[in-house]
Amino acid sequence: MSVDYQNPTPESVGAFYDEVNTIVAYAQGGSMHYGYWTGPDDDTDFETAGIRLTDMMIERLAARSGDRVLDVGCGPGGPGVRLAQASGAELVGISVSENDVRLANEKARAADLTDRVRFEPANMLDLPFADESFDHAMALESIVHVTDRVRALREIARVVRPGGRIVLTDFITHEQAGEKADDTIVKVYDSWRTAAPVPADAYESFAEQAGLVLDEVTDITDNVKYSGMWTYLALREYARSNPVPPEVERILGVFGPVFNGTADKPALSDEQVVQGWQQLLAKKQVQGMIIVSAHKPQA
């Protein structure tokens, strides 16, 4: 029987990342977001694949020296720092996780960028910035935690100047309207405090409602689909020799007992885990990811 997605709140998302972000960043090559692979024969490591996706966002944003960029949902700061280094722009990053903010500011200090890069706690649904105070905005795998995407887009659009670009990634579903997702998929999303994925064609309406002009929607599902497998395997390996918080145990336990099984539910072997993921990846992907580029029209 299928189940419904839970609705994450800014408070629950912040508490989740306060607890897991250092471990997840370790598992995902440091940046704490999906990676981009060219195909099944691409043996790129997660760090490189993650930087590849970050660079795709930076290229689309096209910020220049002197621009002011908002990094919406900054994580531990990797993409924001990289954008500032590549473009020369000033960057302000936000997160609902205080631990994210701390780690991101440490990264900015290590890169000697504190004169034009800073990170602070804030909620994307209620940004503490004046209207039209940024040239552009980037939201790399952060709007996925928001149930009301239009409200988030309106708030981001509010603080971006006319002509400014907004580039983001979001989770999508190819399920038909009214069709419920498989309960295992739902549990995966819920274990990551992720809102329900949106229909693949949703952003035309979202952009219009938020007062934005939609420039690009690119489906990168077949390039990022390996991220879940590599994240799960890395977390599993980490948990073998390190204590992990309950939230990581929950992530690992979605597919069944990890190390301490019972007679009724034996623990999964490494071979079973890999085979299960390979079978999943070989199927047509019902859940996926898109890159969205839009701009705020001139007044």
TrEMBL record:
Example GO biological process: methylation
Superkingdom field: Bacteria
Gene3D superfamilies: Vaccinia Virus protein VP39
GO molecular function: methyltransferase activity
InterPro entries recorded: Erg6_SMT_methyltransf, Methyltransf_11, SAM-dependent_MTases_sf
Stretches assigned to the Methyltransferase type domain: 70-168
Keywords, in A-Z order: Methyltransferase, Transferase
UniProt-listed Pfam families: Methyltransf_11
SUPFAM superfamilies: S-adenosyl-L-methionine-dependent methyltransferases
Record protein name field: 27-O-demethylrifamycin SV methyltransferase
Naturally occurring in which organism (per UniProt): Pilimelia columellifera subsp. columellifera
The organism's taxonomic lineage, starting at the top: Bacteria, Bacillati, Actinomycetota, Actinomycetes, Micromonosporales
